[in-house]
Amino acid sequence: MAARLGIDRQVLVIVNAPWSQILEWLRFGKVGMHTMRDEHFGINIVEMMAAGLLTVAHDSAGPKLDIIVPAIRGAGDVPTDEECLQFPVGFVATTAEQFAESIAIALGVSEKLAEGVQRAARTAASAKFSEDAFRTAFYRSFGPVVRWLDNQRSADDND
Prior knowledge:
single chain, 159 residues
């Protein structure tokens, strides 16, 4: 497809890369892009954020609701360095033009703003999506069910 579009000199497709190579590319990059619409979760988005890439994801489903929150939604939404009380964790877009604009913004933001977004993204990725965060949320959600099952089992044992 890259050759057909005339961008094969600018695009490198790597299939089934080992994890070490993926980590190297994540360390090398500045901007990460995920264009899938209605992605239900998107672990690769979280990995880009955790790696410190300025991440641009589709403004739908998981990225919109859970992952890229708060988000930058275009040029009019970019805070100045002084306005950044709560840094956004990335960018969201829906159209090709919006993706292009978001990438251009990400490549052109001040170092202070980039570092703030990267820090906020890393913090959000570890706070929301780490094993500890999952375990805590799981036990909070399913603790009452487990206790109820234990009570049922105890009642059955006493009969």
